[in-house]
Amino acid sequence: MDLRRKIARLRTQPTAPTDTPAEPAAVTAPAEPVAPTVEALPTARADDELRARLKAVAAKTKRRAGTTAQPAVERPPLPEWPFVVRPGDEGSVHVATRYFPVDARHGAVSLASALAVTGTQAATLGIDTALQGYDPRRALFFDTETTGLAGGTGTLAFLVGMAWFDGDALRVEQLMLLDLEHEAPMLEHIARRIADAGALVTFNGRTFDLPLLRSRFVMARVTPPAEPPHFDLLHVARRIYGARVERCNLTTLERDVLGFERVGDVDGSQIPALYQRFLREGVRARDALLPVVEHNVWDLAALAALSGELGARLAREHGDGRFEAHDLVGLARTTHRAGDLGHAVRLASEAAAMGEAAGDSKAARDAHVLAAGIHKRTKDGAAWRDRLLAALDHAPDDAALHLELSRCYERALRDPAKALVHALKAAGAEDTTAHTKRVARLRARAKKRRPEQLRLPGV
């Protein structure tokens, strides 16, 4: 068809009136379902239905092998929107408050166990003498939810959870930043809580939460509070449970230590996007923040329970959480670093016995090596040797153990012949040149100390 015929055909077709809008084209659904994104979260009713389904799934879910199903902290029911406006001299803040009885359990561990932690225990666990005055009745359990995980001056703490023991209950107070213009009043409130506390208990607060708040105090021109002693449980948990747990975060420690596994918990990586959505959409997206509020409450409950479990284990009492031989090795190592050598040796002995009873040769070996190092430091040569020989029973081909035994026999026990025996089995545990010199030196010393035989004429 040529161009003239096309133009003529177009002119003959009727056109729609200019004052009548054309019918919108029908929207067809995609052939396959589209996976939901963070931007397409369910409505409040859908959230309720989702929570109901998750509870039903949780009731049927079995725990992993080696753990026992335990009840969660008996939390009071969360209202549809728990935050109320509290006016103040600096401005209004949005606050939610709940109380948990001290005999409530987070998994297998009672919240009340946190009240038994002494200042000496906190100072030992934290390897910080500033915690000698730790009083759990004046401790502030502290956790933040932020707009980013990398920190920096552009990151906000939009939800701050604080908990402390109030009579026979654990009081949980949460502050929500619903309007960025109200950040200063919220920070003023937080500053007062921190200033009144005898100690802060956090999980990675030393590296993340506190530096973030300091920058926000400066940006909002709020006078920062004097910070009390800081009991950061992340570093304690890494030293004690790091050899056993696959990842040292709160949710993993809850599962593998406290005996509690979260079901339906919001993923931490999604939290910043949920708050950004609220800032864009306002009240319509407010209910999407409720899972974040519950996530924050779980974190605070875990801090209290974990501190109590650690204190009980250090006191050599029967804790309620899961505790294995390598955890006891970590506890002994922590006590050693804190300077309590006698307690560290006792814990190492218990760890070795626990490892041997459980068939955990690595834990038993590590416990004996730790005790040997302490005896070396106290210059007890015989105990140093005995611990190394006990460790060698669990790892007979360990060149590093043979090297340490060679040093023990040469330096502490003055027995170059036995030192030579172990030096010959220590190849690979030190530099080749150093090993060659060691063997040559011990050969010469052993030969020099060998008694001369009496030779009689004609014999």
Structure description:
By secondary structure, this protein is α+β, with helices and mostly antiparallel strands. The chain has 3 domains: 66-314, Nucleotidyltransferase, domain 5, CATH 3.30.420.10; 324-396, Serine Threonine Protein Phosphatase 5, Tetratricopeptide repeat (Alpha Horseshoe), CATH 1.25.40; 405-451. Helices cover 48% and strands 11% of the residues. It has 16 helices and 9 strands. It has helices at residues 3-12, 44-60, 119-126, 183-196, 205-219, 233-241, 250-258, 271-281, 290-314, 325-337, 341-358, 361-377, 381-394, 399-412, 416-423, 432-449; strands at 84-86, 93-101, 105-106, 109-110, 139-146, 157-166, 169-176, 199-202, 230-232. Strands 1-2-7-6-5-8-9 form a 7-stranded mixed β-sheet, sandwiched between helices. A two-stranded antiparallel ribbon has the order 3-4. Strand 6 and strand 7 form a beta hairpin. The chain is elongated, with a radius of gyration of 32 Å. Mean pLDDT is 85; it is low at 10-48 and 50-69.
